[in-house]
Amino acid sequence: MCIVQGAFAPLSPSPARRHFSESTGVTPQYVGLVRLLDVEELRVSFATPYGVLDAVRSLSFQVDEGETLGLVGESGAGKSVAMQAMLGLLDDAKVSGSARFKGEDLVSLPPKQIERLTGPGCRSCSRTPTAL
Fold it and tell me: Distance between CA 58 and CA 42 in Å, rounded?
């Protein structure tokens, strides 16, 4: 899985998401999905001299095996901060919600355990190489 932020990435459904044609009379359904990443109500905030800055508010999405997710948004929308929070790279932020990778909540794990869990299968690919 690769999370691409800040640029358009063509999204195509995994083979498991393809379903029978409605003309066959079979109800369309998703078969054999393996949920790799399930993010629910992710929130990231920072304490500043002027008060609390909510950088990410209630981000939720899912990524199944074989899928690629592209996060697209304006500069300052929180794309990089959300990915850094999920990978345990923000020391000075308050992070809440959940980001389950293969069933393990990344938000509650220290960075070394996140790295062991995700291994080479999970990376944040920034449009700007110096962004992370």
Answer: 5
Q: Domain limits at 45?
A: 2-9+34-126
pLDDT above 70: percentage of residues in the chain: 65
Number of domains within the chain: 1
Query: Which two tokens mark 39?
Result: 């993010």
Q: Tell me if 44 sits within 8 A of 95, measured CB to CB.
A: yes
63: left (phi over 0), alpha (psi -120 to 50) or beta: beta
Q: Report the CATH number that the domain containing residue 122 is assigned in CATH.
A: 3.40.50.300
**9 falls in which pLDDT band (50, 70, 90)?**
very low
User: By the 8 A CB rule, do 117 and 108 touch?
Assistant: no
In a domain, 118, yes or no: yes
